[in-house]
Amino acid sequence: MENYFINEGFEKYPNEQTLFTKQSKKGKMLIASVYVDDLIYTGDDEEMISSFKYSMMQVFEMTDLGKMKFFLGIEVSQQGDGIFICQKKYALEILKRFGMIESREVNNPIVPGSKLSKDADGVVVDESFYKQIIRSLMYLTSTRPDLVYNINLISRYMARPTDLHLQAAKRILRYLKGTFDYGIMYKKRSSNDLITYTNSDYAGDLNDRKSTSCYIFLLSSGAVSWLSKKQSIVTLSTTAAGCASQVVWIKRVLNQLGHVQKKSTIVMCDNSSTIKLSKNLVMYGRSKHIDVRFHFLRELVNDGIIELLHCGTEEQTVDVMTKPLKLESFQKFRSQMGMCRAIKLNYLCITISLEEELTGEIRA
What is the pLDDT of residues 187-229, one digit of tens each? Predict the structure, then answer.
C-alpha cells in the first residue's frame, strides 16, 4: 500500500510511518493514516477526497464506511462544536468480563495518599487473572489519561500479585464503573497552541526508589499525547528532557499536517532547578552528574522551540499521572485534560451507536 501512496503523489512522513499527506497546487491538503488494513483520511478539498476514494477502490478491494464513528475500538462523535472520543463500549465489556458491572462505584481510581509495594507477606492471588485485568485496562488508556498512572502502578507487581494488588486493580474497575462513558472533548474554537505539562514524583517507588516521570500535551482544550513511566535508573536529579523530545516530534508532525506551531511550545514544570539549568550556563559545573543528553534541553530553549515556565503544584495538571491525589484535585486536573462525561455535552446524541455510519474510514 505504501507504493500506491507514493505513486499517487503522497509524501510519507519519516518520523511517523503510518502518515501520508498530499498537497495540491492550490494549497489544499489530503491526509491519510494507515493501520494494517484500516485507513482513515481527511482533507479540506471535496474534489481531492472523492478522487482519492475512487482511486483506492480501483486498486484495492475496499469498503467505504463513511464518516468515522468507530475506529480501532475508539468511538468518535463529530459535532459542530468539536470532536468527542471515548471507549464506552470497550469499558463496559471489561466490567462484564471481570464481573464488576454491578460493583459499587468510587470517585477516584486509587485511595488518596496510598502507596503500593511488593507486599512480601501478602496472600498471593491468581497471577493469570491479575494479568488479564491489567492487559484489558492498558488499551483503555488510549482515551483515558486519568487511568494511566494507576495502571502503570499495578502493572509493576504482575510477577507476584497479592490480594493487596488485586484490590487496587478492582478499585480501578469500580472507578471505571462510574466513569465508563468518559472521554476527551476537543473544542473547535479553543486555543490551537500546543501546551505541555511535565513532572516527576522523585523516588516514588517504595521498592527501588525509582521515579515516575510523566508529561501531557494539550491541544484544542484536550489531551493529545501523554505518558506516565517508571524511570529505568535511580536518579538524583530530573529534567524535562524526555518531554522536550516529544515536543520536537509532535511539532514536526503538526507542521506536516499544516498546523504550524510558530510560537515556542510552553512546557509547564514545577522544578525550578530544571528551568534554571536550561537558561544558566554557570550551573553547568554543578550538573555534570546529569547525562550529556539532558543538556540538549538548553539548546531547544535557546532556539525558541520550547519555553519552560514554572507551574505551582496546585496548577500542575500532570500530577494526576504521578501520584494519588485528593478527590478535589483529581477531578480538577481530569477536567483540565478535556475529559468529561458524554451526557454533559450540549448535544442531542454524543454517545456513538455502532449501528450508525462508522470521518472517512475505508476498511479492506
Answer: 987 778 899 998 887 666 767 767 788 899 999 889 999 988 8
- C-alpha 153, offset from chain centre: 17
In this prediction, what percent of the chain has a pLDDT beyond 90? 37
Host domain of residue 318: 191-324+330-336
The candidate with the shortest Cα–Cα distance to 85, out of 277, 222, 267, 228, is 222
175 and 236 part of one domain: no
Residue closest to 171 by CA, chosen among 112, 108, 101: 108
Domain for residue 342, yes or no? no
| Same-domain check for residues 166 and 203 | no
Pairwise CA distance, residues 299 & 292, whole Å: 12
Quick check: is 361 in a domain? no
Is the CA virtual torsion 259, 52, 62, 3 positive or negative? negative
Q: How many domains does the chain have?
A: 3
Same domain? For 206 and 301 the reply is: yes
Residue 197 lies in a domain: yes
Q: Are residues 274 and 243 in the same domain?
A: yes
> Are 147 and 137 spatial neighbours (Cβ–Cβ below 8 Å)?
yes
Identify which has the larger pLDDT, 341 or 95: 95
Q: Is 254 exposed, middle or buried (0-12, 13-18, 19+ CB in 10 A)?
A: middle
Tell me the residue length of the chain. 364
The helices-and-strands tally (H runs, E runs) of the chain is: 10, 16
Tell me: do 202 and 319 sit in the same domain: yes
In a shared domain, residues 169 and 294 = no
Instruction: Return the pLDDT at 131.
Output: 96
**Alpha helices, DSSP H only, in the chain?**
2-7, 46-59, 88-97, 127-140, 148-154, 163-179, 241-256, 272-279, 296-302, 327-336
pLDDT score recorded for residue 363: 38
Q: Are residues 170 and 223 in the same domain?
A: no
Shared-domain flag, residues 202 and 172: no
Question: Among residues 113, 85, 119, 82, which one has the least CA distance to residue 207?
Answer: 119
Q: Which residues pair with 40 in a beta bridge?
A: 33, 361
pLDDT bracket for residue 356 (50, 70, 90): very low
Q: pTM of the predicted model, to two decimals?
A: 0.81
Taking the CA atoms of residue 62, residue 63, residue 67 and residue 73 in that order, the dihedral angle to the nearest 10 degrees is -90
